[in-house]
């Protein structure tokens, strides 16, 4: 285990940290030079689509998800479309729709006719499909009039994202923009039972803070019914970042390595995407959240325990693939693997077992941990 611990720390320092710095530099450049000016132009073209400027935080920018060193997903919060709204959690009636719901507008400063569902049982609700399509059209229009120097943009709609490709010399950066609404201080009904058994990890104050952060309703389709244009996906991005924040106990030199395990595994996934398919970075994060509840003591995440925690994270990822079931951390009725064929998940588990054995048997010689 000592050999693996040494190899993981070396990989984390030489590869993961370097990759994170590249991500930070890429995001800072692209956001300031392209994405923020682009979103400002969108609001000028159609005032309904004015949005909140993504603010920097511990994950670079609020609402930002990093897929790899040059691919990013950004949640764009629409602040001017509606001034009063209600979220209807569909997962409470049907678990097939867990993590999804509808947004009913009550007040709006501008006409919404072209953004509403105009027929059927969801009539009068906001249409996630129309919002993302019109948003993508506006992003394309804004890109055509955005003054740029030394950069080239390619903007297109690839369902369900408005995709912005930024070219700077030989480098390419890809941003997938997702329009969304924020519900601060609110918590979805389907997640009302959270937390059930995390008292050893989270204090009442921490749970309160996480819930007060609220959630996003992202204009993303539901796999259970892609034709239902009214469904928005629930995102707990803010609460997840808070729970996985860097923690150093008072009067202690101990520093948690919870995120180190995830970052190492995500980078291995990036270099072995075919073997990991269809595992996403969010699947890895969810397994990590469950691990944090299982190992609440920060001493379990000390630097000396990095190898143990990493192997458990990879092992438990294999186990959920074998069982074809990964419960959402906040909404336990939601199985994050339900949309994938069982045989596909089983085949992925077999491939990841080989990766586990390769890393465990000879860390110093494993191609996946080479620096």
Automatic annotation (TrEMBL):
Keyword list, A-Z: ATP-binding, Magnesium, Metal-binding, Nucleotide-binding, Nucleotidyltransferase, Transferase
Record-annotated Mab-21-like HhH/H2TH-like domain positions: 258-352
UniProt-listed InterPro entries: Mab-21-like_nuc_Trfase, Mab-21_HhH/H2TH-like, MAB21L/cGLR
Coiled coil ranges: none
SMART domains in alphabetical order: Mab-21
Cofactor: Mg(2+)
Residues in Mab-21-like nucleotidyltransferase domain copies: 60-245
Gene3D superfamilies: 1.10.1410.40, 3.30.460.90
Protein family per UniProt: Belongs to the mab-21 family.
PANTHER family per record: CELL FATE DETERMINING PROTEIN MAB21-RELATED, CYCLIC GMP-AMP SYNTHASE-LIKE PROTEIN-RELATED
Official protein name in the record: Protein mab-21-like 2
Lineage per the UniProt record: Eukaryota, Metazoa, Spiralia, Lophotrochozoa, Mollusca
């Amino acid at each position: 285990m000592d050999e693996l611990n040494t190899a993981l720390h070396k990989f984390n320092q030489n590869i993961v940290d370097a990759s994170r710095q590249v991500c930070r530099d890429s995001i800072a450049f692209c956001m300031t030079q392209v994405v923020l000016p682009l979103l400002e132009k969108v609001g000028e073209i159609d005032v309904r689509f004015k949005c909140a400027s993504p603010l920097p935080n511990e994950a670079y920018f609020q609402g930002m998800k990093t897929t790899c060193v040059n691919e990013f997903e950004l949640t764009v919060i629409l602040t001017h479309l509606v001034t009063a709204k209600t979220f209807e959690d569909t997962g409470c009636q049907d678990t097939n729709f867990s993590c999804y719901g509808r947004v009913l507008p009550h007040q709006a400063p501008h006409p919404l006719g072209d953004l509403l569902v105009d027929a059927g049982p969801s009539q009068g609700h906001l249409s996630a499909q129309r919002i993302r399509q019109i948003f993508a059209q506006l992003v394309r229009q804004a890109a055509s009039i955005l003054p740029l120097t030394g950069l080239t943009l390619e903007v297109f709609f690839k369902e369900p994202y408005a995709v912005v490709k930024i070219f700077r010399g030989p480098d390419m950066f890809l941003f997938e923009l997702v329009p969304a609404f924020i519900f601060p201080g609110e918590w979805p009904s389907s997640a009302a039972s959270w937390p059930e058994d995390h008292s050893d990890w989270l204090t009442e104050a921490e749970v309160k803070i996480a819930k007060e952060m609220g959630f996003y309703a992202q204009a993303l389709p539901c796999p259970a019914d892609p034709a239902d244009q009214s469904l928005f996906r629930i995102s707990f991005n803010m609460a997840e970042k808070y729970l996985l924040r860097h923690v150093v106990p008072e009067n202690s030199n101990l520093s948690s390595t919870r995120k180190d395990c995830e970052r190492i595994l995500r980078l291995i996934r990036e270099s072995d995407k075919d073997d990991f398919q269809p595992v996403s970075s969010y699947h890895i994060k969810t397994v990590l959240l469950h691990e944090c509840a299982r190992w609440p003591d920060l001493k379990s995440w000390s630097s000396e325990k990095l190898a143990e925690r990493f192997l458990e994270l990879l092992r438990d990822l294999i186990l959920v693939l074998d069982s074809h079931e990964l419960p959402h951390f906040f909404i336990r009725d939601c199985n994050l693997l339900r949309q994938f064929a069982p045989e596909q998940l089983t085949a992925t588990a077999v491939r990841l077992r080989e990766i586990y054995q390769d890393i465990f048997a000879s860390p110093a010689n494993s191609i996946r941990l080479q620096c």
